[in-house]
Amino acid sequence: MPVVKSIKAIGHRTIDVVWRIGYASRFFALTLYYSGASFRRFHLTIKEMFASGVMSLIIILVAGMFVGMVLGLQGYETLKRYGSESALGSLVALSLVRELGPVLAALLFASRAGSAMTAEIGLMKATEQIAAMEMMAVNPIARVIGPRFWAGLISMPLLSALFSAMGVFGGYVVGVVVIGVDEGSFWSQMQSSVDFQHDVLNGVIKSFVFGVAVTAIALFEGFDAPPTAEGVSGATTRTVVESSLAILILDFILTAFMFRGD
Amino acid sequence: MERTALDLWVGAFVVAGIGALVVLALKVGNLSTYNVSDTYLLNAYFTNVGGLKPTASVRSAGVLVGRVTEIRLDTDRYEAKVTMSIDKRYQFPKDTFANIQTAGLLGENFIGLLPGGEDQMLKSGEVFKKTQSAMVLEDLIGQFIYGKADNKAK
Description:
The complex is a heterodimer of chains A (262) and B (154).
Chain A: H1 2-33, H2 36-40, H3 42-52, H4 57-81, H5 88-126, H6 129-135, H7 140-179, H8 183-193, H9 196-224, H10 229-258
Chain B: H1 5-28, E1 39-46, E2 57-60, E3 63-74, E4 79-87, E5 97-102, E6 109-114, E7 127-128, E8 130-132, H2 137-153
Parallel strand pairs in B: 1-7, 2-6, 5-8
Antiparallel strand pairs in B: 1-4, 2-3, 3-4, 5-6
């Protein structure tokens, strides 16, 4: 009976998804529970901050610069039509601080650092290093997962702030230095429209939430990867796809809460 | 535990990140214009606040003297009660005139204070007696059109 078979398949899939969500939640809870070790042995976290944060610096800085420059160019072309080129500063700064900084930095972080995390942990599992740790009574979640999680969490807001600052600089270079928008009005319009609490702090909160989402997904996919070459590559792909979607969906939800009605 | 080259890099990264946040707060944002000095609260009632929002600036003679902290509807008078925090350094006479002004034709609203000549100063929690509500552009256009029509009828 093909009908029964397909219904069975749907049921099997659904149960599988629920199972996975439960496993992921338990994994996330355990990561938080055992995260004391990441702070007692902080050098482990420092090492992971180097791998995920410092190594992502160049791509974040270059991307931020160019995004800011594009915003400067496009914004100028549009604002010129309404004769309000002086608002270029607030356009560049607001779009970077509120949206583009946290979102693009998180997307870059997911593909640069998140995929590396998944591949590393997946390979550790495939080569039975994680099983070896358990044999030696070392908790792999405390030793391997925790430091990576906290390193990602600390790095993400810093990277997003650097992205935004670099973007504002890029917008300044194109808008003021190249095109010749008035420098005074560029900065003063920016300062009068960007509110520290409402815009800058909310941007930091956003990037913090994205940091949690990206690292949690990357670590879980790595930990859950089938211990084969195919399994690890599939897990890495899933990390990038899932965390990119998670970032964009979370961004919509957070924006709806933060910037509604004013 | 020894210091390693790794620590240097991570330290530089953290310092740069926090530096970027400070730049965003001070240079890009308006943290540098936030009032850190002592403030006192003054209230004003307006029949219409227009587009006035909390954190809007309070200016006297164009100089920033405080910020709007709260706007709510007073159901005793059915008027908007605007609370603003004013820098302690600036005192205003009791007959100061508070009006809602607009920066440019379509810019944002702010409260302008026009000091009167009385000797006694407003104390914390007191109310501006004389206020003028926001200029609503639509009303103005409406008045203009009806004024024209009236003229024609005469």
